[in-house]
Structure prediction request, 405 residues.
Amino acid sequence: MSTPPHPLSGPAAAGADASRAAAVWRDRLGLLLESTGEGVYGIDMDGLCTFINRAGARMLGYEPHEVLGRNMHDLAHHTHADGRGYPVDDCPIYNAFRAGVPCRIDTEVLWRRDGRAFPAEYSSYPILDGGQVLGAVVTFVDITERKQQQDLIRQARDELEHRVAERTQALSQALGQLRDLQAHIEHVREQERIRIAREIHDELGSLLVGLKMDVSWMEKRVLDQPTLRCKCQDMRGLIDRAVDNVGRIITDLRPSILDHQGLWATLEWQLQDFIDNSELTCDWAIDIAPGLRDPGGPLATAVFRIFQELLSNVARHARATRVEVRISATASDLTLRVKDNGRGAPPSAFERPDAWGVMGMRERAGHFGGWLHIDSQPGQGTQVILSMPLYQAGAHSRLPQERAA
Prediction:
């Protein structure tokens, strides 16, 4: 006796199973849509809502059944944040199914039922079936709090930048005032050196010359007294040494050649004096453009003092056997390079807070718009380059002047 077939066996049973599976997946999809905090809705090719989850509907101020079948652009995306109308042809959401172009936007607003707008981030993706576009699915979220946080961050950043700008301006002014003060101090110091050198020359120099003449007078009158004549000769020798020392002190204070023959001659004289006293092998060259006017004034003094300091550092600290000096000047700038083969030093040594010599040279150069670059490594010697603008377009009055108080 055969068993009769089940009414839902075979193809019919398979179809029923597929329907139940589809229903289960629809239920699960519905649960998934309802469980998310983002708004999710679908639109057909006419832009009409085919489904929307509860979170999305309430975000717009509706119940889900009030939104189904309505044109979503006209409902919630009809106007820009500034009140301008939003043509549907420009809507990125509709382009998702019209042109098959997905989008993600966070710079626009959506509109609630009560006429209030809220900043939203939305994404729109085309719904495809076998290569055919059936519509689009849109997810959106209210980003009001995020925008507020961004505005607060932007406001704080703008305020910080404003404060930094104010502080930077204040520091720049303070630095300018400090440089002016330093320049004024150097100017006063240089004037004091000139005054002291002049007084030493006029007063002490005259006394020594007079004393030498008196000793010579006495020596002529004691020719028959060998002891006194020898004493006079010793005194004259001491006076000659004193005269030489006075001359050296005067030169150290303020070389007269700087005032009478100018910067170019002074640099050459200082270099020759360094060569004679240091006994170092020196390879040097001075190249001054033909007809170039000597700068004179405070700028010339600053260049000379920097050059003097550079050569002094080589003699005292470098432990070098050879030094190379290059000086060149054009109508626009002066470049001075001093390079030795001494022991060198790490770059940090020239940036220390107590590197007063380097700091002073840089401040002198910076006051006139110049700069000082130092290249050195232990065991590889040191090279210093000074660059100073000369402003030779006009007369000497065009040169930067020290702003004395």
Summary: The longest helix spans residues 144-220. The two ends are 129 Å apart (CA to CA).
